[in-house]
Specification:
It is built from two helices and two strands. By secondary structure, it is an alpha+beta fold. A hairpin with a 2-residue loop joins β1 and β2. 0% of the residues are buried.
């Protein structure tokens, strides 16, 4: 075995916290930004699950799809109904 072992820099750290401002804003702490690989202008996604919030970097829809924001019309039935348009 190698004497060198790369450690996970986020393992065994105490809970990371931040404060909420009067405008319901907070600063994402640097270790969290690094772990998510986010930078200025990136979007974040929040998922509420069993009393916890999961924060992830939002994936971007392909820029060449003008209807990407209309996900509510993306069912199989909609695809069939509008196939001839």
């Amino acid at each position: 075995m190698s004497a060198y072992r790369k450690e996970n820099p986020y393992r065994a750290r105490p809970m990371i916290t931040s404060k909420l401002t009067s405008k319901a804003q907070t600063t994402i702490p640097q270790p969290v930004r690094e772990a998510l690989k986010v930078r200025e202008g990136d979007e974040l996604a929040y998922k509420i699950e069993r009393g916890r919030v999961i924060l992830t970097k939002a994936s971007r829809a392909p820029a060449d799809d003008p209807f990407a924001t209309f996900g509510e019309w993306a069912s199989d039935n909609d695809s069939k109904a509008y196939a001839d348009l």
